[in-house]
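seq:
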Amino acid sequence: MAKISKEEKEANFQKYNQIILDIFFESGWHCVTYDNIAKVAGVRKSTLQGYYESNKEFAHALRGKVFPIFAEQLDFSSKEALTESWHKALSVKRFRYILNMLIANSTLPEPSDMTVNGMSNLIKMVDGHFPGEGREVVEGLLGKTILTLLDV
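struct:
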């Protein structure tokens, strides 16, 4: 098999990262698998393993791309507007997939740094608009999210 250049490897890596992002936003984190990425990319799983040693590394493709999409759904003009925009955003597939990933990852014995940082950034963002209330507001939003999604 012919060896590829550093430039080709980087181009492939960027292509695979975009595929990961596309799968995530189209179907959710649970569908970001070696099999699905390989199928879309038209390569073997073993090829992908040369780029991602474990499926945990797929999350790096989302770095810096997810939080802005999440935050753009939110209205920080008042706490009521934030709650209303959050509730409305729950009907937006991308927003729900991001929340699903954050919540699911938060329940793991060792949540990823990206999840911890994402939640911390969300609290800081809310705190920037409502000083001293970020954590409390986010706790309320996450609690309402779970109850809303469960239709309880």
